[in-house]
Amino acid sequence: LISKMDSSSVYALSAGFLAAAGSLSAKLTLGADYLREESIQFVSDNSTTLHVPLRLLCGVLLLSCNTLMWTMFSKALRHGSSSAGVTVTTTASNFISSAVIGRLIFGETHSTLWWTGISLTLCGLLVLHSGTPHTSPQEAEKKDK
User: Fold this and answer.
1) Which uninterrupted H or E stretch holds 77?
2) What is the dihedral of CA 64, 8, 88, 65, to 10 degrees?
3) Domain coordinates of the chain in residue numbers?
4) In which band, very low, low, confident or very high, does the pLDDT at 112 lie, cut at 50, 70 and 90?
5) How far apart are CA 113 and CA 127, in angstroms?
6) Where are the transmembrane segments (predicted)?
7) Are 61 and 25 in contact (CB under 8 A)?
8) How many helices (H) and strands (E) does the chain have?
């Protein structure tokens, strides 16, 4: 669709993916017994102590993903021409990444209504991107002078 993605789109897509990865980390850190059940499958003596360091690792990943997500989102806002476009791109990326990660890790499925909502969000994203000029804030400043 878009032959060349601008840097704000790349940052926004990255921020959305990192937000989904942070959510996954939070679910693994604070979730009921998913890590305990999975760690028992990998340890032959049925020791349940492996899940504690895994939860701590997921907690560190949660903090790291959220820090990187906000960094990428800030960069997307700085390089983007529209904060609305950046926000919608990040949100769409987050939803789609969450769906893919949920399917791969937890075997989750989503209803047709959910996918319809995502499709409408993506259509809105395309409308926003096609309706906004693709000039950077630095180029806009040069034109004003």
Assistant:
1) helix 51-79
2) 0
3) 7-132
4) very high
5) 21
6) 50-73, 85-106, 112-128
7) yes
8) 6, 0
Average pLDDT, the chain: 79
Pairwise CA distance, residues 102 & 136, whole Å = 35
Residue 29 structure tokens: 């850190």
- Angstrom distance (rounded) from CA 14 to CA 26: 18
CA dist 129 and 118 (Å) reads: 16
CA distances, 38 to each of 28, 29, 59, 65, 114 (Å)? 11, 13, 17, 22, 28
The Cβ of residue 123 has, within 10 Å, a number of other Cβ atoms equal to 10
Of 25, 29, 119, 21, the residue nearest 110 (C-alpha) = 119
- Of the chain, the percentage scoring pLDDT greater than 90 comes to 30
Q: Which two tokens stand for residue 132?
A: 């906004």
